[in-house]
What does this fold into?
Amino acid sequence: MKKAVLAFAAVFGFFCILSASLGRGRVDIVQIYSNFLASRVAALGCNAADKATESKFLSNLQAVTIRAIQALKERNQTLSDADLSAKIVAAQNTTQAAVKGEITKNGCSSERIRALLKLYKIHSEMSLGG
It folds into this structure.
């Protein structure tokens, strides 16, 4: 369990560093994006994503992704688009591996995965996609 927590901390830490976090305890769009990614991996890995929910979720994910990429570009102006894209893909892969590892090790009923599944549902019920 501690290893899973450390893996998640590393992923979220990367996003915090990359986004030049706005301050202690504040959540910004890049952190929200990271949470969207982790919750979707959990939902797909635990077969908790039905077609209608996934459709709503993806619409909201698209809106969050666009804004997160804009924010990352603004905060990391010295990085080329290719370098920024590579860092984002690496972070996405790390998030995916951490969530899948948690599912493999502790199952879909683990506290962390249950929290991500709830978050997935919340993300799908938002109205961000227009």
Notes: Helices lie at 2-18, 29-45, 51-75, 81-106, 111-125. Residues 41 and 96 are 6 Å apart (CA to CA).
